[in-house]
Specification:
The protein is an alpha/beta fold. The protein has helices spanning 10-20, 35-44, 61-70, 88-93, 106-140, 186-193, and strands spanning 2-6, 28-32, 49-52, 77-82, 98-101, 145-149, 152-156, 161-167, 170-175, 178-182, 198-202, 205-208, 212-217, 223-227, 232-235. It has a 5-stranded parallel β-sheet with strand order 2-1-3-4-5, with helices on both faces. The radius of gyration is 20 Å and the shape is globular.
Length: 259
């Protein structure tokens, strides 16, 4: 689970980080001290769970969720953590998983997160079932993707795309014989290209696993990945588990899922 903690009180933020970081089902924890900063992070990449305060300067937690919906961003499961009980009805109208009052205990936070984890698992299972016809269609259909470039729509073979790099509001699709700049978020493109063997290795980069020639561990806990042709990418610690899908079998080494 990727967790984003949003609270303008440093003591509450730190206490939540300490509790959440002990869970084995949490792979990453990030924080934001207001709703604006949290919206920016959600714009960049999806999270599975929000631990969200309500009363914050400028924009409240309730207003933040409205903004997430208006921007059509992926909505995480939400646990409100607040000192005010009067917002409970509004919180559950936003389909919150739970409503935790401050001061909170470690047990209470774990209880709420357990409910969120079960809901996430159920939703992922439901999405997988609903996606089965689309998966079959993707297997049977021609391997082409359509992109808008230079005022026209062109069709390219995704197997010829080596990598995708975020460049502001655009993504650069790199091929061995050229590139295309498309107006799309890297997160949206990651979902669309996942069926074609692309994995995310950084908040701003996707790679086609067919072009990976070499991986080297770094002292920082990150990895250096080299593609056919010699271009190198840094694999951040957040996404290193994705490297396990590069090979069907690992001989003489363990997969990155155990790191």
């Amino acid at each position: 689970m990727r967790v984003l903690i949003v609270d303008d009180e440093p003591l509450a933020r730190n206490a939540l980080v300490n509790i959440v970081s002990t869970r084995k089902d949490v792979e990453a924890v990030e924080t934001a001290d207001d709703a604006i900063a949290a919206l920016d992070r959600l714009q960049e990449e999806p999270f599975d769970l929000l631990l969200l305060d309500i009363e914050m300067p400028e924009t409240s937690g309730i207003e933040m969720l409205d903004a997430v919906m208006k921007r059509n961003l992926p909505m995480p499961a939400v646990i409100f953590v607040t000192a005010y009980s009067q917002h409970a009805v509004a919180a559950f109208e936003k389909h919150a998983v739970d409503y935790v009052l401050k001061p909170f205990s470690e047990e209470r936070i774990h209880e709420a997160m357990n409910v969120a984890a079960r809901r996430n698992e159920a939703e992922r299972a439901a999405k997988l079932v609903s996606a089965m016809p689309d998966i079959g269609k993707a297997i049977r259909s021609p391997k082409k993707i359509a992109i808008k470039a230079k005022g026209k729509i062109i069709f390219i073979d995704p197997s010829e795309v080596m990598a995708a790099k975020a460049e502001g509001n655009y993504v650069l699709l790199q091929q061995q014989t050229g590139s295309h700049l498309v107006r799309e978020s890297i997160s949206t493109l990651a979902e669309k290209l996942s069926f074609y063997g692309f994995i995310r290795i950084h908040r701003s980069a996707l790679i086609n696993v067919a072009y990976v020639d070499e991986i080297q561990p770094c002292l920082t806990g990150e990895y250096l990945l080299r593609l056919t042709g010699g271009e190198e990418f840094t694999v951040s610690r957040t996404y290193k588990k994705n490297l396990s899908s590069i090979a069907d079998s690992w001989v003489g080494t363990e997969t990155f899922a155990s790191d």
